[in-house]
Amino acid sequence: MILGLVAVCAPLGDTCLSRGMTYLPAITLAHPASLVAAVFTPWIAVGIALLIGFFASYLTALSWADLTFVLPATAFGNMIVVMLSRFWLHESISYQRWVGVVLITVGVGFVAHGPSLTERPTASPIELAAVEAEQEQVR
């Protein structure tokens, strides 16, 4: 379920941001007030909320699985972005982009086959003592 959220929240968030920004004039860093105002438009606010959901689920996934297992879930989001861009935002997508996204998705499929968690290195007794000493100093 967490990997599903990782795969869906980022593309949906990015698509909502894109939709919201199409209705606004160009924003520059020279005018930070326009950037702050943009954050409070509905589509952009939804996009930001979805990207926060992505980040939370991404951190959760990384706490129990390796990056090489979690990252392919985000790469599958490329296919979702292209589909949403074409059919929801009505953007024109060239043949080369479709082929590129398919190649990336297929390549990620090859990388994704493997264990979710590789063996983590264990700390030596000296390293453990150093960590405990640091924690004791903080207290």
In sequence order, what are the helices and strands, one letter per element?
HHHHHH
Helix proportion: over 70%
| Cα-atom radius of gyration | 20 Å
Overall mean confidence score, pLDDT: 85
**N- and C-termini, Cα separation:** 37 Å
List the helices and strands and how they pair.
Blueprint: H1 2-22, H2 32-39, H3 42-64, H4 67-87, H5 95-112, H6 125-138
Helix pairs in contact: 1-3, 1-4, 4-5
What's the short story on this structure?
The chain is mainly α and 139 residues long. It is 76% helix and 0% strand.
Walk me through the structure.
The protein has 139 residues and is an all-alpha fold. It has one domain. Helix content is 76%, strand content 0%. It has 6 helices and no strands. The longest helix is centred in the middle third of the chain and has 23 residues. The protein is flat and about 60 Å long. The mean pLDDT is 85.
Features:
139 residues; mainly alpha
